[in-house]
Amino acid sequence: MILDGRNIKVDGYPNGFFIGPTVFDEVHPGMSIAKEEIFGPVVALIHVKNLDEGLKLIENSEYGNAACLYTTNGKTAREFKYRAVASMMGINLGIAAPMSFFPFGGAKGSFFETSKATERSVSVLTDTKVVIQRWT
């Protein structure tokens, strides 16, 4: 753990229970933190040698909520966003967390569905992808 988000205190909420940003580095695919879908301000960094190794890692995961890539190469970024199976994708930013008006449905084990037959059912049951990119 390179950033510990435990024991966070928030002014004005002395009885609250909060978790601050938490970052784990040098995570390996077999570790629980790499295999589970963890929600909250927690990120597990998995270093890969190349794009194909990273895409294989994503492909082998049972979840597909989000995936992020750091690169200076536009071709690599484009290939990542088209080949990776995840609903929220970040390029050169830590967590791909779009605003609420973006489509979201999850992918693979992260998928959720609705039992209501509404106009939104079509979009919820459609495999969509949101890509947020930052280039400097």
The largest sheet, given as strand count, sense and whether it forms a barrel, is: 3 strands, parallel
SSE series: EHEHEHEHE
Helical percentage: 10-25%
Low-confidence stretches: 113-117
Radius of gyration: 17 Å
Global structural class: alpha/beta
* Mean pLDDT reading: 81
Count of distinct strands: 5
Percentage beta strand: 5-15%
Q: How many distinct helices?
A: 4
| Tertiary shape | globular
Care to describe what's here?
By secondary structure, this protein is of the alpha/beta class. It has 4 helices and 5 strands; from the N terminus they run E-H-E-H-E-H-E-H-E. The chain has helices at 32-35, 51-60, 74-83, 119-124, and strands at residues 22-24, 42-44, 66-69, 88-91, 130-133.
Give a brief outline of the structure.
With 136 residues, the chain is an alpha/beta fold.
Short descriptors:
single chain, 136 residues, alpha/beta, three-stranded parallel sheet, two-stranded parallel ribbon, 5 strands
Helix-strand layout with pairing:
Layout: E1 22-24, H1 32-35, E2 42-44, H2 51-60, E3 66-69, H3 74-83, E4 88-91, H4 119-124, E5 130-133
Parallel strand pairs: 1-2, 3-4, 4-5
